[in-house]
Write a structure and sequence with these properties.
Elements: H1 2-10, H2 29-95, H3 98-120, H4 128-156, H5 162-181, H6 184-201, H7 209-225, H8 230-341, H9 357-416, H10 421-430, H11 433-513, H12 525-619
Helix pairs in contact: 1-12, 2-3, 2-4, 2-8, 2-12, 3-4, 4-5, 4-8, 5-6, 5-8, 6-7, 7-8, 8-9, 8-11, 8-12, 9-11, 9-12, 11-12
Length: 632
């Protein structure tokens, strides 16, 4: 732990390496993942908003088209009923049938209902004035028609009925009475009145009431002056007066009937242009609704294609930036780790200024590099010390060998002159220092044995250090394999993002290749509107389904990319933990090994110093045989 604290204190933090910070290195990988997830959720919400706006626009266009079609149907019903009523009132009045009047009332009621529906429709606000004019006109038309029908009933619904029948009956009776008296002047005056009567009985005739009154006065004067009996004159005068009253009433009713029919014709005259105006309004409204539907369809296509493409482009760009922020430093770290594994301690470590896992891994690699450099320095120092120790041991061995050879030369004459025990004892007494020379030689032999044992122990420790280095190499290989696995996952994620880009391109191309259905014929507005609506519904469903499929593929690819990035983060975290543990253990082991080697070097230096001291001390006591003489 002390080694870790020392190393961490020795390494600068991300703030000191701000210039070495990579893309988005100021954010952690978890924050970047959270940002990408939030951006994906925002993209989904954006797509939902686009579809909502498109649905609202399409719904508004559909409602407007349906309202235009409903108005067009109401206008068609009004037009058909108006044309039927306007052209048939003369025939109805001529037929003088109550069933026809009831049919007219039913037609007017249906017409008024359609006009009321048209007036109350908010979409037909521009045509309300025309509809109100038509409603007032048909109300007046119904009033005058009923007046004309009542007058027609008074005139006579059947022959010999009504005012026409009464006038004809009295005229026939008066004509019969005048035939009895055989007066040509009276018959001539009555004949002119009968012509007026016949004209008044015909539909469409317009006899003059003043002429009839003048003829009646002439007939009355002729009867009063006729040379006939007073009783016959009084009867003819009374009969002529009754005939005149009926004829006058008939002429007055016929005149009123003519005025009502003329009024109906006038109403027909100003209703017909309004009907045409209303029909033109319906056609323009339907055309405007169709144009609005076409514009809405184009807008929806542009909105879905442009907005969806923009959202996908932003999402893919953000994903690519996040991938680049991970892949670039990971590639650099993998490259640096491979160089460190090959023993290149001078390689640069990227992403030291990052606050994410790559920054931690970079600092772990820096620690690993410094520990390796420190261990190399210690190893070099140890080798130098071992070389010095070996040189000193070799020199000591050579000195001991020369001393031993000198000792054997001194003891050889003593073995050859074994004459007497006294001489041997005397030689032993005279040369007491020879045994003292042999003692240092034995000491040198023991010291050599001690150096050999130390070297054996150091060899065992070196073997143990080799095992530790092999274990560290395995951990280094695990780090490199983890970085290689991260690179493979990065390549897979890049392939997924390329697939997402292709899907976006297909989505944009498909939205642009969708054809606009043709505008229907204006002659058959209702049927073509229904057909157009079915075609548009089918097209919208097809486009919506295809877009949903493409978006589903894109979302699936994005989710796979997110999972791959999460796996990359987990792998980098595991490699980071192993690297930190490895760096800490390497630092601690390196310090321990350096301490042990230093102690061993000091002990070895001390032993060599002792050996040299003994050699120097004992060198003066050895006999000098270099001159070939006897020892002193």
């Amino acid at each position: 732990m002390a080694g870790e604290d020392t190393i961490s204190d020795r390494l600068p933090g991300p703030r000191e390496h701000a210039m070495q910070r990579t893309l988005l290195g100021g954010m952690s990988l978890r924050a970047r993942m959270a940002g990408l997830i939030v951006l994906s959720i925002a993209a989904i919400a954006g797509f939902a908003g686009l579809f909502y706006v498109a649905d609202q626009r399409s719904e508004a266009a559909l409602q407007r088209l349906q309202a235009a079609m409903q108005i067009q149907r109401s206008i068609g019903k009004v037009q058909a009923a108006a044309l039927a009523e306007l052209g048939s009132h003369r025939n109805m009045l001529a037929a003088k049938a109550e069933t026809l009047v009831k049919d007219y009332d039913r037609g007017i009621e249906a017409l008024s209902s359609n006009l009321k529906t048209l007036i109350e429709n908010p979409a037909a606000i521009d045509g309300q004035k025309t509809a109100l004019t038509l409603n007032d006109g048909f109300t007046q038309h119904a009033t005058h028609f009923h007046n004309a029908a009542k007058i027609a009933v008074l005139l006579g619904a059947r022959p010999r009925t009504g005012l026409i029948g009464n006038a004809r009956a009295l005229g026939d009776k008066l004509e019969g009475e005048l035939a009895k008296i055989n007066r040509a002047a009276l018959a001539s005056g009555l004949g002119r009145l009968r012509l007026i009567e016949a004209a008044a009985a015909r539909d469409g005739a317009a006899p003059n009431e003043k002429v009839a009154r003048a003829e009646l006065r002439k007939l009355a004067q002729a009867i009063s002056k006729a040379p006939i009996e007073a009783t016959a004159r009084a009867g003819l005068a009374k009969l002529a007066s009754a005939y005149g009253a009926d004829l006058t009433q008939l002429l007055r009713m016929r005149e009123m009937f003519g005025r009502e029919v003329s009024r109906l014709d006038e109403i027909d005259a100003y209703i017909a242009p309004n009907i045409q105006t209303l029909a033109l309004f319906g056609g323009n409204l339907d055309l405007s609704a169709r144009q609005f539907a076409a514009e809405t369809q184009n807008l929806v296509r542009q909105l879905l294609a442009g907005g969806g493409g923009a959202i996908l482009a932003v999402l893919i760009l953000a994903a690519l930036l996040m991938l680049a922020s991970v892949t670039k430093p990971v590639r650099g770290l993998a490259h640096a780790a491979s160089f460190l594994a090959r023993g290149d301690h001078g390689t640069g470590i990227p992403a030291l200024g990052n606050y994410d896992e790559t920054g931690e891994l970079a600092h772990a690699l820096v620690q690993f590099r410094e520990n390796m450099a420190h261990a190399q320095r210690l190893r070099d120092e140890l080798e130098l010390r071992l070389q010095k120790a070996e040189a000193e041991a070799a020199a000591s061995a050579r000195a001991a060998a020369s001393a031993e050879a000198a000792t054997s030369e001194d003891t050889a004459p003593e073995d050859a002159s074994e004459d007497t025990a006294a001489d041997a004892a005397e030689d032993a007494a005279t040369q007491p220092e020879s045994t003292e020379v042999l003692a240092p030689a034995a000491g040198l032999q023991n010291l050599s044995n001690i150096n050999i044992a130390d070297l054996s122990r150091q060899l065992a420790e070196t073997s143990q250090n080799a095992s530790t280095a092999a274990h560290e190499a395995e951990r280094t290989e695990m780090i490199i394999n983890g970085l290689a696995s991260s690179l493979n996952r990065i390549d897979q994620t890049e392939t997924l993002m390329a697939s997402i880009s292709d899907q976006m391109s297909l989505l944009v191309v498909q939205s642009q290749l969708t054809d606009e259905p043709p505008v229907g014929d204006q002659a058959n507005l209702v049927l073509l509107a229904d057909k157009r609506r079915d075609d548009e519904n089918g097209a919208v469903r097809s486009i919506g389904q295809s877009l949903s499929d493409r978006i589903g593929v894109i979302q699936s690819g994005t989710n796979q990319a997110i999972r791959s990035i999460q796996q990359i983060g987990e792998t980098i975290g595991a490699v980071n933990d192993v690297a930190l543990e490895f760096a800490a253990e390497s630092s601690s082991d390196a310090l321990d090994v350096a301490t042990v080697l230093l102690q061993q070097s000091e002990e070895l230096r001390g032993k060599l110093d002792d050996l040299l001291g003994k050699i120097k001390l004992e060198g003066g006591a050895l006999p000098n045989y270099s001159s070939g003489g006897d020892p002193e």
